[in-house]
Design goal:
The chain is an alpha/beta fold and about 200 residues long. It has 7 helices and 6 strands; from the N terminus they run E-H-E-H-H-E-E-H-H-E-H-E-H. The chain binds flavin mononucleotide (FMN).
């Protein structure tokens, strides 16, 4: 994949550190031309709590520690933004973390914010849509909504750590997860751990 345009959407589920690592990886990837960033209102609160941020107006700069070169920040209320239309080409959308609330909206086609409209567009245009859901345990509504979204074409890609790469710290766990997400949308990373028992 070259000159890729990726949508990154952040909602109010736990996992802000993973979202910030995803944005860092996309910023550093020469195959990515542009990242469209949109976040729900509730995600601002969770991000501020989990990452210790206080300047909510500059949340991207605070997360990444530098002004972003490729990231376009969209207002979630702006349902007239480029990514709200199927005529604007994007290559994939990653909702990370994806709350159960946003999962419900996407699964039921509410499209009542830029975030949920952009996801709806990805589904109707048959573009990759990864929902990195995070909740535990799941109730039956969550399970039904995941099935609905998957039937409509989304990939349910739960925020779950792996242990087969023997991580010794949180960052290694986070990187491994991000590498799996990026490989899934055609952006394999050079530092990805690949299971190879040598048979
Ligand atoms: C610190 C914190 C952590 C949360 N973690 C989760 C979570 O992991 N999963 C989830 O579905 N909701 C979680 N919530 C609740 C959501 O933020 C809440 O349901 C919100 O309405 C989601 O809105 P949104 O989907 O528009 O972002 C959390 C809330 C807070 C304050």
């Amino acid at each position: 994949m070259n000159s890729a345009e990726i949508i990154v959407a952040v909602t109010g589920a736990s996992g802000s550190v993973i979202a910030s690592e995803l944005l860092r990886a996309l910023e550093a990837d020469s195959r990515v031309a542009r990242v469209h960033f949109v976040q729900s209102e509730h995600s601002r609160r969770v991000m501020a709590d989990e990452l210790g941020l206080n300047r909510q107006a500059h949340i991207i700069e605070d997360m990444l520690g530098a002004p972003p070169a490729k990231i376009t920040v969209h207002d979630n209320a702006n349902i007239g933004a480029s990514i709200a239309s199927g005529s604007y080409r994007t290559d994939a959308m990653i909702v990370l973390p994806c709350s159960m609330g946003t999962l419900a909206s996407i699964a039921n086609g509410l499209a009542d914010s830029l975030l949920t409209r952009a996801a709806d567009v990805c589904l109707k245009e048959r573009r990759p849509l990864l929902l990195c859901v995070r909740e535990t345990p799941f109730n039956r509504i969550h399970l039904r909504n995941m099935t609905l979204a998957a039937e409509a074409g989304a990939t349910i890609f739960p925020l779950m750590p792996a242990f087969y790469n023997k991580p010794t710290d949180t960052l290694t766990m986070v990187r491994h997860f991000i590498n799996r997400v990026l490989a899934h949308i055609g952006l394999p990373q050079p530092d990805a751990y690949v299971w190879n028992p040598g048979e």
